[in-house]
Design goal:
Strand order of the largest sheet: 3-2-1-11-12-9
Number of strands: 12
Radius of gyration: 17 Å
Helix content: 25-40%
CATH architecture of the domain at 2-106 and 169-177 and 187-240: 4-Layer Sandwich
Bound molecules: zinc ion
CATH topology of the domain at 2-106 and 169-177 and 187-240: Purple Acid Phosphatase, chain A, domain 2
Structural class: alpha/beta
CATH class of the domain at 2-106 and 169-177 and 187-240: Alpha Beta
Order of helices and strands: EHEHEHHHEEHEEEEEEEHH
Shape: globular
Length: about 240
Amino acid sequence: MRIGLISDLHSNLAALETALADLKAEGCEEIVCLGDIVGYGPDPNACVERVEAECAVTILGNHDQAALGDLDTEYFNEYARTATDWTANALTDESMSFLQGLPLSVLHHDVRLVHASPLQPEEWTYVLSLAEAERQFLGFDERVCFIGHSHLPVILESSSEIRVHKFPVNEAFQLSRNARYIINVGSVGQPRDRDRRAACAWYDTDSHQVCLRRLDYDIKGVQQKILDAGLPTFLASRLAHGM
Ligand code: ZN
């Protein structure tokens, strides 16, 4: 079975629609969402509605938690904090109650799904070093764990040592049966790896292949909506640079 994976949508509806359409065209029978549906972008409620309608499993992200008022945003940068306040104000009761019910970690089709990292998902730890990756491989029992959070797609492989693989774009990558993996699927709505295209991925539970998808979408339209909403200009301009 082919599963589509989306993460870090950040209220970017055009990017989300593009990712959903692509994953279905790629033959995904099911789509799962690794969190951060909201925050930064102009369409929080529409994104929540689409995720609720389309995703078999949805995980809570730190920006979702912040918008609910359940996370101290002191460590957020100024843009993230402004966007969090804007989002909290914009969310409907229906969107709030959907976000409130989301889990931090789910086992689905034998793979672990979390937003940030498996060891203590509520800590929102970034997996950006080999030392941190080594720690995080102790945080789950399954062979494969999918994450988001850093907005940087990558494949971390653990066998006798930890190896970092560049995630090939629009081309399947074969997972080894003798290794374990932490795989970051990148960000649908606010990529930060200097590639401005929306990122999402699929995983085939039979062939054990993963594929990172990079997709063009209407960035200019989203930028205009961000400005019209009165959100910080920087949140619009960064989309064009993928950072
Ligand atoms: Zn995020």
